[in-house]
Amino acid sequence: MSLQSKLRWGILGCAGIAKRSVIPGIRESELGEVTAIASRDLDKAKETAASLDIARAYGSYEELLADPEIDAVYIPLPNHLHKEWTIRAAEAGKHVLCEKPIALTAEEAAEMVAASRKAGVHFEEAFMYRHHPRYKMIKDVLASGEIGEVRGIHGTFTFNSAANKGNVRFRRDWGGGALYDVGVYPISAARLLLGAEPVAATVQALFSPEHDDVDMMASGLLEFPGSVGLTFDCAMWAAFRNTLEVLGTDGRIEVPGAFVYPKEAGGGNFFVHTKEGRREVEVPEVNQYALQADNFARVVLQGEAPLMPVEDTVAGMRVLDACLLSARSRTRVVISE
User: Which domain of life is it from (predicted)?
Assistant: First the structure.
C-alpha cells in the first residue's frame, strides 16, 4: 500500500473532453493533481497548460511518459490511438485511464489488458457515469422489488454535430461513428443494471457517405438472458436526447439525464413510477469526473477494488463488436466469448 497522498496525472492530448471535464474533475478530486499535459504540437500544449494552470507542457507524448513525476495518464486521443498509447504508457510504468470506447475491437482491448497486467499498472475505461452514486441508488430500487421484475430497458444518447465535417468522429479508420461515441453508454448501463451480458445483437444504422460512411444514427436491440431486452438509439445527426428507462412488471424507473445532466439542483435526480404514483429520488450534487478520479486513485494508492474491472471492459467491447457487425451486415449477431 502506498503512503503517497495524491496521484500525479499527465494528460495525453488536448481534447475538449479533457479540458472541459476531466482536468477540472481531477482538480476537484481529493486524491488527484494534474502535473503535465502533452500534445504533438508544443505550442498547443503550452497554450493549454497556460490556460488551465498546468505546470508542465510537453511537445510529444513520449516526453510525458518519460517524466518520473507522473504516476498516471489520462488518454482522450482519437479512438484508433487508444491501444498504442495505453500499451506504451503501461510499458512506461504509468497507470492508465483511457476514454471510451477503450479500443476498436475486443481483441485490441484484451491486448491492452494483457500489457497493463504485465506492467503491473491499473488500467481503466473512462465511463464517468458509473462513478455517480445514483446508479447504485437505481440498482437498490431494482433490488427492492418496487417496480417488480425487469421486463426491458430503453436508452438513448443522441446529438447533432453533422455540420462539422472535420470532426474526428467522422473518420471511419479512426473509429468514428455513433455506436463508438455514444451508443456505448446505454449498452454499458443495461449491462450494469442487469448484471448480465447480452447473448445477441440486432442493429439498424444510417451510414452516411457525407461522413466517411460512419454510422451517424443507430437503433438496436440487445437480447439478455431471461428474455429481457435493451432497445437503444444513438446518433450524431439527430436532436439531443440522453435518457434511460427501466420497465418492470409493477412500475418503471425514468432517468431524464442518464449520462450527462444539468449541474443545477435536481439535474441528476431520477423518478420511480408505480401504482402509488410518481416519486422523485434526489441524488447528491457531485462531480462524476471528480469521483472517477478519486476512485481510480484509491485503486492505485490504497489497493481498493476498481469499479470498472478490466473484464467488464473487454466484455463491453465484445458487445460493441457484435453491434457494429450487425449494423454493417444487417443481421442478428450472436455474442459469444
Answer: Bacteria
Q: Which of 43, 22, 45, 46 is nearest to 34 (CA)?
A: 22
Of the candidates 100, 118, 136, 263, the residue annotated as catalytic is: 100
Omega prior to 101 cis, within 30 of 0: yes
Give the tens place of pLDDT for each residue, 30-61. 999 999 999 999 999 999 999 999 999 999 99
Amino acid at 324: L
The pTM (predicted TM-score) of the whole model is 0.95
Whether 100 is catalytic: yes
Average pLDDT over residues 193-217: 98
Strand partners, 253: 246, 272
* Architecture of the domain delimited by 7-127: 3-Layer(aba) Sandwich (3.40)
Q: Tell whether the torsion through CA atoms of 167, 162, 234 and 290 is positive or negative.
A: positive
